[in-house]
């Protein structure tokens, strides 16, 4: 990659952000599309989202991805919000519109749906149990509800579960009853951090594997490792599985498409992410 005075800049803001795969995903996409663009990570401390978005205008950045802890603050700092971002009060994508107006969007939910469909699964009219009620869970739940899935949210905090269920047009079950709910579901989505490499040194599972069975689909939003203990165990029970890397790739691909107006090279982005994750675990 050759950087020149004409090179356009996009980036991601977060804290921490040095571990982010977004530069890998975006830069390989820009190269494949033949664009003189570069994507970098900006470590912005909590409370700095508005300043970062102001700088976006001043520096004529192509776009910004937004990750924790800035998604809510970024929503408040944008001039306009998409319908999805407005409902979630969360932004992971900022684009520059006419007259320098900043437009906020959330591509997480649609990225999840694209990943699920890419794996051959249509969630419409399916009974879905969604484990977790954080930002990713809310985005996924709303997206599932929008396409007609019957969503049941199960989370440790009952009030958070209720908020997520409201967005999804669904219902809740207590965390203590998750095993029974999972056993009755057609699609199960783990949107908790249980199973993430950094979450615990032990092998953690959000529910007993014995409740899974053939005919079910299990999605684990954890993507590091790509093959989580939950995915491996679910496969052993005969369930179909979908890893979390697909959602990460597709939400970034949607950003690429918004900013460039061109189809994103999804397969190439996925391969680059797999290579990067492989190096981290080698």
Could you please describe the fold and organization of this structure?
Helices cover 41% and strands 18% of the residues. The protein has 282 residues and is of the alpha/beta class. The protein has two domains: 8-106 and 248-281, Rossmann fold, CATH 3.40.50; 109-243, 3-Layer(aba) Sandwich (Rossmann fold). Helix 7 (158-168) links the parallel strand 8 (150-154) and strand 9 (171-172). Helix 1 runs antiparallel to helix 11 (266-281) and helix 10 (245-260) packs across helix 11 (266-281). The longest helix is centred in the last third of the chain and has 16 residues, at 245-260. The chain is globular, with a radius of gyration of 19 Å. It starts with 7 loop residues before the first strand and ends with a helix.
| Regions with little confidence, pLDDT below 50 for 5+ residues | none
Number of strands: 12
CATH superfamily of the largest domain: NAD(P)-binding Rossmann-like Domain
- Strand fraction equals 15-25%
Outline, from the CA principal axes? globular
Overall average residue pLDDT: 95
């Amino acid at each position: 990659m050759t950087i020149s005075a004409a090179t356009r800049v996009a980036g991601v803001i977060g804290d921490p952000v040095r571990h982010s795969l977004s530069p890998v995903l975006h830069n390989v996409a820009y190269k494949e599309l033949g664009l003189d663009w570069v994507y970098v990570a900006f470590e912005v401390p909590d409370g700095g989202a508005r300043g970062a978005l102001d700088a976006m205008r001043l520096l004529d950045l192509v776009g910004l991805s937004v990750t924790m802890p800035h998604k809510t603050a970024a929503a408040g700092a944008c001039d306009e919000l998409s319908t999805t971002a407005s409902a979630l009060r969360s932004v992971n994508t900022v684009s520059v519109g006419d007259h320098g107006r900043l437009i906020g969007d959330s591509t997480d939910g649609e990225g999840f749906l694209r990943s699920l469909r890419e794996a051959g699964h249509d969630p419409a009219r399916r009974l879905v149990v969604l484990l977790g009620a954080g930002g990713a869970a809310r985005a996924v739940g709303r997206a599932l509800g929008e396409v007609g899935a019957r969503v049941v949210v199960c989370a440790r905090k009952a009030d958070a579960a209720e908020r997520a269920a409201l967005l999804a047009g669904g219902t809740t079950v207590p965390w203590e009853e998750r095993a029974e709910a999972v056993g009755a579901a057609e699609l199960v989505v783990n949107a908790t951090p249980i199973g993430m490499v950094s979450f615990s040194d032990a092998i953690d599972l959000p529910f007993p594997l014995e409740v899974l069975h053939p005919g079910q689909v299990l999605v684990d939003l954890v993507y590091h490792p790509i093959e989580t203990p939950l995915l491996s165990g679910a496969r052993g029970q005969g369930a179909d599985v979908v890893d979390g890397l697909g959602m990460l790739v597709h939400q970034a691909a949607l950003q690429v498409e918004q900013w460039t107006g061109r189809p994103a090279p999804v397969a190439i982005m996925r391969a680059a992410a797999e290579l990067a994750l492989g190096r981290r675990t080698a």
